Amino acid sequence: MQISFAKRIPLAFCLFLSIYSYAQDSLYVRQTVSKLTAETFWGRGYTRNGMANAADFLSAEYKKIGLLPMGEQFKQIFSFPVNTFPGKMLVELNGKKLIPGKDFIVDNESPSVTVSTKLQQLDSVTYSGGSKIKVVIKDKLTWSVASAVGNETIVQINKKSIEETPKTISATIENKFIPNFSASNVCGIIKGTKYPDSVLMITAHYDHLGGMGAYTYFPGANDNAAGVATLLSLAKYYVANPPPYSVGFICFAAEEAGLLGSRYFTEKPTVSLSNIKFLINLDLVGTGESGMTVVNATIYPKAFSILNEINAEQKLISKINSRGKAANSDHYFFTEKGVPAFFFYTQGGISAYHDVFDKAETLPLTEYRDLFKLIVSFNKKMMQ
Fold this sequence. Notes:
The protein is α/β, with parallel strands linked by helices. It has helices spanning 5-8, 11-23, 26-36, 50-65, 221-240, 260-267, 301-314, 332-336, 368-382, and strands at 68-69, 75-84, 89-93, 96-97, 104-106, 113-118, 120-121, 126-128, 133-138, 153-158, 168-173, 176-190, 195-205, 245-252, 276-282, 292-295, 320-323, 341-346. Strands 1, 2, 12, 13, 14, 15, 16, 17 and 18 form a 9-stranded mixed beta sheet that branches. The longest helix has 20 residues, at 221-240.
């Protein structure tokens, strides 16, 4: 009987070809990053239903890819307090109108204020406008999320936007405090063909900073549309190549508000935490010119050694840096609960971070393909 060429190809080589094929799917990743950073999702945050719209998109994408819900449904709903800025965001310094996001941001705990006043210099970078408003000069504008409202509005101004010493300020800023903001983790799974109760987990937070005012939003391409897009591409691969172990996929909400989504999941998991064999968290993975870093590498030296062996053998990432335990992304509360976990982030390239310049069109995705191959090969080793 004549054996076809396809049947004579070793299974391992077929698997390699499959990994390579899916790793080349950078078009899907770029399209997903562009989608998630679009105005429709308004920074995947707290105004204009940005986070809710993103959760709906991800749930639909999970279903389209072929994932099953990790629990009764894809969404795991929880709530938390948050300070938002849905309305007016007007600032004039020395009579010059400033652009939100580019020239200034407001401190995330700021209350609403309408004021026009002279400024008194307190130190080399701080100016007081009385009890209601303060100005702080910054080399870089970096925003974040707050779960409380302070007593004073603080306006942070880009040093490059100042032509003379700040003397007067006029501002109208509107905040809205939401005591029970509703958000959703989006959780899906593909069941293992041999060991469905053992799970390898891949996670990434999909939320970002949302909008500041009615016309400015923070796209969050590297942080963390890139991580989500990589997660989805891995989900496509595993659905097409069913593994012996189950593989779970969680897109967390409220990472930027203090890792609240991942903390909630570890407190009310939809799969037993003891069944998670290993977890890989992806955050800030859109670059890679200078390599990548693995948080928890010193906590799990054997797994880190396996990762490095794979990387050296396949000649993937230029350099993999080791880092210890850190509460800097969604892996943290899993580690605290005894779940072995790595947090991957890439380095080099763009410097945009928590600002309006973290855009899809400037995101290089330098090491997407190599990172994809590294994760698939590492997971294969962990399944043995």
